[in-house]
Q: What sequence folds into this?
């Protein structure tokens, strides 16, 4: 004779399995971040990522169908976090959030892994048409969000700019990434508040004079 499980037990087991799967997923992304940054994309292996995460190689492929998909998932996770922060912080406009943006740029440039991950993504994208297409799609999604934030800032200021919103977004993104790379090479050349000061001057300079 079978005994029915107590009410609610099955949902807890299902929830536990889902939580364990989510933890493994995040552990694999963390391990991938470290291995890609240490080895470079080409030299990084699924076996090493699995070993660092403490799981089997099969588990890696159960979560990500390829090393390339894991790499793109890393970029997506990072972008999702940055977008969520930006949308929350920019409600009061760029000026209010500049200290936080400066802080994040410095943390990224001074990180052991993040600048290397970005460099690896770009290098592999220009060498692999398939990966390049995936990264371009990722960048387009991020750029669309940034363009929306730029448009909201323009409307908040009640001005027009000499460049389109998408063009401003592209310049702002390039400025951020360029300063990350420069600070990584020569920390003294990028003061902690340089991004914020430059962004302020840039947006002010883009304002069309009142008609």
A:
């Amino acid at each position: 004779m079978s005994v029915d499980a107590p009410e609610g037990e099955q949902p807890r087991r299902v929830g536990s399995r889902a939580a364990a799967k989510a933890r493994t997923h995040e552990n694999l992304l963390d391990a991938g971040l470290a291995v890609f940054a240490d080895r470079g994309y080409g030299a990084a292996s699924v076996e090493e990522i699995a070993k660092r995460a403490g799981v089997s190689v099969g588990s890696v492929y159960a979560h990500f169908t390829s090393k390339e998909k894991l790499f793109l998932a890393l970029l997506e996770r990072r972008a999702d976090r940055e977008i969520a922060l930006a949308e929350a912080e920019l409600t009061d406009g760029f000026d209010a959030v500049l200290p936080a943006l400066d802080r994040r740029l410095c943390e990224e440039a001074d990180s052991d892994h993040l600048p290397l991950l970005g460099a690896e993504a770009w290098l592999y994208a220009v060498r692999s048409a398939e990966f390049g297409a995936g990264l371009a799609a990722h960048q387009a999604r991020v750029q669309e969000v940034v363009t929306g934030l730029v448009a909201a800032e323009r409307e908040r200021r009640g001005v027009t700019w000499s460049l389109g919103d998408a063009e401003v977004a592209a310049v702002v993104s390039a400025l951020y990434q360029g300063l990350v790379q420069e600070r990584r090479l020569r920390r003294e050349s990028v003061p902690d508040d340089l991004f914020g000061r430059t962004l302020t001057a840039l947006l002010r300079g883009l304002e069309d004079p009142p008609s």
Remarks:
- The chain has a mean pLDDT of 85.
- Residues 9-39 form the longest helix (31 residues).
